[in-house]
Fold this protein.
Amino acid sequence: MSCGVDRLTPGLAPDGGKLCTDCAGGLGDFTCEQCGQEARRYRRGVCGRCVLAERLHELLDDGTGSIRPELFPLFDMLWQMKRPWGGLTWTSHPHVQRNLRALACGQVPITHEGLSQLTPWRSVAYLRDLLMQSRVLPPADRQLLFFQRSLAEKLPAVGDAEHRRLLELFAAWHVERRLRTLASRGPLTGNQVQQAREEIRLATAFLGHLAQRGHDLADCTQADVDAWYAGGYTARRLTHAFLRWAMRSKYMPAVAVPHRSTSNPAPIAQHQRLALLRQLVDHDDVPLQDRVAAVLVLLYAQPLTRIARLGTDDVQHRDSEVLVRLGDPPSPVPAPFAGMLLDYLGQRPNTMTATNPDARWLFPGRRAGQPMTPKTLELRLRHLGFPTQRGRTAAIRHLVLQAPAPVVARMLGYDDDTTARLAEEAGGTWRHYAPGDHSQ
C-alpha cells in the first residue's frame, strides 16, 4: 500500500498491488463494531474473529455460562488464528460441535482415553492435535494412538476365539512393543504404522488360510507355509513377523520361512536426473513446495520420511551461502536451488490457521503441530510424474562416485555401511578411504 500503514487492503492499484481504503479513494468503513479493529466482516458490522469467539464461547461452555477452565488454552489458540474463516468453517460441522460440547460439559474426560470415545476418528484426530498443541493434553505419539484405535476396532471383529487370542498376543508382545520402542526414539511415521497394520492383517489372513486347510497354528506344516507364499510372495512378505514370533513363542512348530530378494527398482540415468533438476527450476506452474521437496530428493538423496521432518532451522543462510542441515556438516545448496529454498521459506503452506501458525516445520501439515506426512509428499510428487524412489537411488549412487562414502554418509545422514555398499555397487574408487578429519 502506498501510505505504508499496516491495515486492511481491500483496494486494487493499477499495477496490481493492494491498497487500503483511504489510498483507494474511500471504499467504506471496515471497522468491527465489537472489537474496533479493521477487518473483513463476517456478518453486518462484526468481523470474523469476533463471530468465532462468540461461537467458541457457546461450544466450550461448561454449563455455567463460562468456558470450561481446562479448555481456555484451546479457545485462545483458535480465536487468535490469522484467518478465522477456517475456524468458522470447522466449528460449523455438527460432529465438531457435538464433540466440543461433550468435552466442555464433562460428558467425555479431557484425556487421550476420553477422546477415543468420540467419532468420527479423523475429526477426533484433528481435535486431539489441537488439544496437544495448546497443551490441554500431554504430548502423545499420534501414529501410535491411530494404531491402537485401529486395533481396538479390528480384533473384536475376528470370529474365531483362538485366532483372536493369538492375534492379541502378537499385537501386544511384538507389534505394539516394537512401535513403542520406535516411538521412544522419535515420532512414528505413517509407513511404520501402516506396516504394523499390514502385519496384523496378514497374520489374520494366514490363520484363516490354515483353517481352510484343516489345520491350526499348533500343527502348521511346511506345506501350509509354502502354499501361503505361493499365492504371492511380495504381497505376503510381512507375514514373516507373525511366523517368526509364533515359532519363538512356541505356538507353532519350526518351519522354513521363504526369502526372496525385493531390491529397489533401477535408478534413472544421470542425464534424466539433470533434466529433471532443470525442469524444477524452470516450471513456475508447479507449486514451489513440490519443487523444493523434489530437489531434496534429486540433489541430496533424501527419503520423504526424512524430508517431512526437516525444520526451518535446518536451512541456514550465512552471508551469501545457503546450507541445509541433513547431517554433519550441513550441505551447501547451489544456485539456483538456494534461491528457490529461500523463496519457499516465506510462503510455506498451512501457516494461516490455528493448526500451525508458529510451525518450524519446513513442510507444515494441516494437523496441529504436525508436518506434512511422507504419504502426502509422495502423492503430490507422484501426481507430477516424479520418479521419487528411482530419482533418490540415482542421486545417492552419483554422490558416492563423487566423494568418499563416509563423507557422503555424514553430510546426508546416511549410515556408513549403506553408502559403502552403494559405492561398491556403483563401482566407486574410494574403497580405501578412511573416515575422519583429513584437514591436518
Q: What stands out?
A: The CA atoms of residues 105 and 245 lie 45 Å apart. The chain is about 50% helix and 5% strand. Strands lie at 11-12, 18-19, 41-43, 46-47, 315-318, 321-324, 331-332. The mean pLDDT is 87.
